Amino acid sequence: MEDSRSALVLFSGGQDSTTCLAWALERFQHVETVAFDYRQRHRIELDQRLVVLDELRRAPPWADRLGEDHLVDMAVLGQISETSLTRDVAFAMEKDGLPNTFVPGRNLLFFTFAATIAWRRNIRHLVGGMCETDYSGYPDCRDNTVKALQVALNLGMDKSFVLHTPLMWLDKAETWALAHELGGQTLVGTILEHTHTCYQSERGPRHPWGYGCGECPACSLRKRGYETWAKHAA
Ligand code: ZN
What we know:
The chain has 234 residues and is an alpha/beta fold. The chain has a single domain, classed as Rossmann fold. It is 46% helix and 15% strand. 41% of the residues are buried. The structure holds zinc ion.
């Protein structure tokens, strides 16, 4: 039997997955985290996620609930995918309307590997930061994709996993609002200071919305969302 009080969060160290982690820590008694090293250009996120975890381990009552962290080496995904997240090419839009930051199958693989870990750890709930509202149209972030994958994983592993995507219908401003609701200014501060979103690995000057180049698609979304939220929150 899976433990329905436990969750495993796909935790990359960005704004979205940190908010998802806080969401899970509010709901589940035991929460583990997993990240994937697919030789992403912004590998700095793998360092930053450890800083975020350290911060959260200092925040009662979440500290007691935060369990093991897993890092999965998925170098093969970087080897077989031709994208601007895994190769040194400029960000651009493809003819099919998808940005070349799209790594085909990435989220399908992440959830599948997470389920493999959850299976071993007797964890029932899987949590990911996929979002349909305010993102780049990645087809593996869509609600139907995640729901279909839940069915496939449960059939294929003979389990009753529940895949949660708390950000699915939120825009970036609402994601900042959710973080504030979950952890107040402390969590917002942790996200601003320590999470990494920028595709370019830029962590130079600190902007009001955190660190990043300010220009890449990930920074643009984060910046715009923060400014909208901050204006309404003020
Ligand atoms: Zn950027």
